[in-house]
Amino acid sequence: MPPPFDPADLPTGLLMPLSPLVARVLAPNPSPFTYTGTQTYVVGGDAVAIIDPGPNETAHLTALAAAIAGRPVVAILCTHTHRDHSPAARPLSILTGAPVIGCAPLTLDDDGPRADAAFDADYRPDRVLGDGDQVTGPGWTLEAVATPGHTSNHLCFALLEEKALFTGDHVMGWSTSVISPPDGDMTAYMGSMQRLLERDDALYYPAHGEPIENPQRLVRGMMGHRKQREGQILRFLERNGESAIPDMVADMYRGVDPRLYSAAGRSVLAHLIDLDGRGLVAPVGDERWRMC
């Protein structure tokens, strides 16, 4: 039997060609939430765009400079502002002279427990892209596709010449995306997934995990998984009556790495908020929930 797979064993800092227009560089930040690490994509040939520049780490910035190899950088694009995606944008902009373009900055106003620890508060784009806006270079066109849900400011980027979609954290190649309120929104996420299902992209390039072939099949599966989780929550409340989220997580996530329980609890909360909006469940004091 082969030894257990360890994401930390994958090589980082190397430029890996994936198609005539796409290559990637893996950042040295593997974790239970990032899998092998954040994949920064280099798009183009004579002049390039950088998608999700990743963490502000010297080794990764050095690797990106080597990957660019002196070519003009048209734009540095960010799918969203989690700290494993956007912090390298500004130092890379200073290095290359390229503008930071993409998602809007995100500042949370939350009177409850802090929920923005994973966000890059220093992100300041030179240009914010709206749905359908394009960035072009020699031989390539990237079009923004608004996909709120994982975060409210999340964008995917469609490479029109190859019918490929850079999906950030909206669709990953190793796991479903964490939806963490108050900014993460299950209703918006499912709407964005339906939008992707109706597109005709031939290939997905996620920020975490390998390229995804037959992406519509994966999207259908992920939507089905969310519906199954919703059903589990409803059945749990039917069986147990008024309940707290940690009890639901312990029941529904058996066998899952306990380090992921906190994130699982956030996704369960997102489902409950969605179900509340549809009149199926209701919150009770002390962070408990019941069937309506």
UniProtKB/TrEMBL annotation:
InterPro entries named in the record: LACTB2_WH (IPR041516), Metallo-B-lactamas (IPR001279), RibonucZ/Hydroxyglut_hydro (IPR036866), Sec-metab_biosynth-thioest (IPR050662), WH-like_DNA-bd_sf (IPR036388)
Domain spans labelled Metallo-beta-lactamase: 37-208
Pfam families associated with the record: Lactamase_B (PF00753), WHD_BLACT (PF17778)
SMART domains: Lactamase_B
UniProt name for this protein: MBL fold metallo-hydrolase
Lineage: Bacteria, Pseudomonadati, Pseudomonadota, Alphaproteobacteria, Sphingomonadales
